[in-house]
Design brief:
This protein folds into three domains: 87 residues, Arginyl tRNA synthetase N-terminal domain (Gyrase A, domain 2, 2-Layer Sandwich); 258 residues, Rossmann fold (3-Layer(aba) Sandwich); 135 residues, Isoleucyl-tRNA Synthetase, Domain 1. α19 packs antiparallel against α20. Helix content is 53%, strand content 11%. By secondary structure, it is an alpha/beta fold. The two termini are 52 Å apart. A five-stranded mixed sheet has the order 1-2-3-5-4.
């Protein structure tokens, strides 16, 4: 008999071992065990009734026989409820054994990796446009993508972090026109060179809006660039170098890294293969001078064209994205590709995936699993897209600087005696952690309202609250002059209600990791860490840790140590640093 359920890790192993000891029932008896009450750690088998009905058996009598067949088990209590429901409850002895087994981040990583076959995955995220400053709209893709990459890496997969920057296209014709007309020296733009490039681009846009001749001139400059004209290539390279330096400054501040930064320009000599492949297999057709793909079997895209070559012969996002899929399959041997962008691009990626499926199937080639991880918008307190008072997008670097400055005020109020170096360190960790967590703790598919007061609060579901929980546990070990994990061999099973509640919460960590990776939604992990910190606070307030009784102290120190381990592991997966003292 096999019991199926929706938990993972040690719960999975224990229930399967328990199930394997039963006999006397048909193999197709497969009750589902699911959390009936997460607070009290009960699990209820709900498959007894349909099985009994199918075979004309008395469900309660059958459930009683199943309990008898299970026999005594120190890891689990089983009781009968209602007309034939089986309730499974893990014992304190099991909770102790679980905590003793998982004593380091390595143990969790090893168990998580052992439960699945590793694969090669490309995570495509951030993707700013060159010649522009990164603004608040880039933070969601950048942070969510980073966490997804961390989760895949934690699972033992071969992860490529790819930043597909926008460094090619129509905007460069406009920018080159403005640079030439202003006679700007790109080698001597001074400080804020990226901001000056952005100003030049605005000037170019204003020129083409006011005079059609300038629009034609911008197109001419773009053609020269695409044909490899030396002067325009030189300008383009300098613009990209300035932009990349600006991006890397932001990424360094956020603790983000990439394995590849391959912009659209990297694929410009690969688009002809896309046209040839789609034409060869009659996947595309001509429409009003453009090359397009219609997915007539699809209700929404039957009449909505997927343009792969514009009427003037130019490539576009669709073309380079298809070329990018080919490159990632052929060169990176990707088995999965994850794209992290805002929700407005859902149609584009749906059509891209459909087109790639048809093309690769026609070629008889392997196509990786393609997924679009999309997200909503960050709103201001007026429930509109967050902007400056002047109506411009908030610059990302300005947002990060303000977070650190606001955190510094809080740190100085709590610890005015700190030296400047330590104050700067704590302010940076708290401020940047608060920004990250404020975004990650939201369901990514929803819009959310940005609030400084909420994200920096020491109470509620915030990074500072979790960082404070870590610091408080660290202080317990400092008082005892002990390292976390020492003396655990003397610990006994949880006894009090608050000890058991905390132990139960700890055991859910593998399940939460599984759900977070399966749905690619970091807010599941955030919510769990917040609940864990809250349960620890209840435990700490009701059960004194630093007691004289060595047995009581040992088991409560074990609970402190495991809570600390899981909080720090979870926050590391979220890219959030912790502090030993706040």
């Amino acid at each position: 008999m096999q019991i199926s359920y929706d938990l993972t890790g040690e719960l999975d192993r224990t229930l399967r071992e328990t199930a394997s000891r039963t006999d006397g029932f048909n193999d197709d008896f497969s009750p589902e065990i699911r959390p009936a009450d997460l607070r009290f750690g009960d699990y209820q088998a709900n498959g007894v009734l349909p099985f009994a009905k199918k075979y004309g058996l008395n469900p309660r009598e059958m459930a009683e026989k199943l309990i008898e067949a299970l026999g005594e088990d120190e890891s689990m209590d089983v009781d009968l409820a209602g007309p034939g429901f089986l309730n499974f409850r893990f014992t304190p002895a099991f909770r102790l054994a679980w905590m003793q087994k998982y004593s380091s981040i390595h143990d969790f990583r090893e168990a998580f990796q052992a439960s699945r076959k590793p694969f090669r995955v490309v995570v495509d995220f951030s993707s700013p446009n060159t010649a522009k400053q990164m603004h608040v709209g880039h933070i969601r893709s950048t942070i969510i993508g980073d966490v997804i990459a961390r989760l895949f890496d934690f699972g033992g997969n071969e992860v490529t972090r790819d930043n597909h920057v926008g460094d090619w296209g129509t905007q460069f014709g406009i920018l080159i026109l403005a640079i030439k007309r202003s006679k700007s020296d790109l080698e001597d733009l001074g400080q804020d060179s990226i901001a000056k490039l952005e100003d030049l681009y605005r000037e170019g846009n204003q020129l083409i809006a006011e005079d059609e001749s300038f629009r034609m001139e911008a197109r001419s400059e773009l053609v020269k660039l695409q044909q490899g004209e030396k002067e325009n290539i030189g300008i383009w390279e300098k613009v990209n170098a300035i932009s990349l330096a600006s991006f890397l400054h932001v990424y360094e501040r956020l603790g983000i890294r990439f394995d590849d930064i391959l912009g659209e320009s990297f694929y410009r000599d690969k688009v002809d293969a896309v046209y040839e492949g789609l034409t060869k297999h009659a996947i595309c057709e001509e429409s009003e001078g453009a090359m397009v793909v219609f997915h007539r079997e699809h209700k929404r895209f039957a009449k909505q064209p997927f343009i792969v070559r514009k009427s003037d012969g130019a490539s576009n996002y669709a073309t380079t994205d298809l070329a990018t899929v080919c490159y990632r399959v052929e060169k990176l041997r990707a088995e999965e590709i994850v794209y992290v962008t805002d929700g407005r691009q859902q149609d584009h990626f749906s059509q891209l995936f459909l087109t790639a499926e048809k093309w690769f199937a026609a070629e008889g080639k392997f196509l990786p699993h393609l997924s679009h991880v999309w997200f909503g918008t960050i709103l201001g307190e007026d429930n509109k897209a967050i902007k400056t008072r002047e109506g411009q997008p908030v610059k990302l670097l300005d947002l990060l600087d303000e977070a650190i400055a606001r955190a510094k005020v809080i740190v100085r109020q709590k610890n005015p005696e700190l030296d400047e170096i330590e104050m700067e360190k704590r302010s940076r960790i708290i401020g940047l952690g608060a920004i990250r967590y404020a975004d990650l703790s939201q369901d990514r598919t929803l819009d959310y309202v940005f609030s400084w007061d909420k994200l920096l609060a020491l109470q509620g579901n915030t990074a500072p609250y979790l960082q404070y929980a870590v610091a408080r546990i660290r202080s317990i070990f400092r008082k005892l002059k002990m390292e976390p994990g020492s003396g655990e061999e003397a610990a006994s099973a949880p006894v009090t209600e608050s000890e058991n509640l905390l132990a139960r919460k700890l055991i859910y960590f593998p399940s939460v990791l599984e759900q977070t990776q399966r749905e690619l939604k970091p807010h599941h992990l955030c919510g769990y860490l917040y609940e864990l910190a809250t349960d620890f606070s209840s435990f700490y307030n009701s059960d004194k840790v630093l007691v004289d009784d060595p047995d009581v102290r040992a088991r409560r120190m074990l609970l402190c140590s495991r809570t600390l381990l899981i909080l720090e592991t979870g926050l590391e997966l979220l890219g959030i640093e912790t502090l030993a003292q706040m």
